[in-house]
Amino acid sequence: MINEEKTAETLRNVELSLATIHDREDGVVVGRDGSVLLYQRGTIDKVSVDGRLIKDNIFTHNHYNGMCNLSVGDVVSFIEDGGYETRVVTSDGRYVSLKRGNGVRNTSLGKDMLMVCRDRKFVMGVLRRTMEKYGRVGLPLRNKELENAMNEWLNSNAVKYGYIFTQGRHEP
Ligand SMILES: [Zn+2]
Fold first, then answer.
1. Spacing, Cα 124 to ligand 1 middle (Å)
2. What domain count does the chain have?
């Protein structure tokens, strides 16, 4: 069981607060009853939490670099830890969420996502899209398109693995 109303309210508050951090990644574990179980301060490029705390719970963290997508590492550890939901928030209040569906799950989602992201076709596709859209391929623009491409992939594929992917934005 999950308290949808309370978890949504807690996540909104927690993520609007995480969105204000500009120099490190912090993470918060929220229980399915909507209570905050842990606030973990992270470092410049990662935040680590004991997997036993993540199990069956919701984990959210900030990407202060502005990339509003779950990294392959985020997805792999979410599945390994048996989390209920994993989320990322950026400083503009946007968020993405991956959570368990109701049916059988195929836990190779993370592994397959890694294969896709490493594939030359995918990497070249991101470059080509960046070039087409902006006429140049500086890193911030490329990261923007990488974010889009990774979210599109999860949006089309998560459900095939028994997971639910959503994107949204907290209005302040
Ligand atoms: Zn992350």
1. 23
2. 1
Check pLDDT > 90 for residue 172. Answer: no
- Residues 7, 13, 14, 18: is their CA dihedral positive or negative? positive
Phi, psi of 89, deg, nearest 5: -125, 145
Residues in the chain: 172
Question: pLDDT tens, 8-52?
Answer: 999 999 999 999 999 999 999 999 999 999 999 999 999 999 999
Domain, as residue range, for 105 = 4-169
Q: What is the rounded distance in angstroms from the CA atom of residue 109 to the CA atom of residue 107?
A: 5
Span from the CA of 5 to the centroid of ligand 1 (angstroms): 25
CA of 125 relative to ligand 1 center, distance in Å: 22
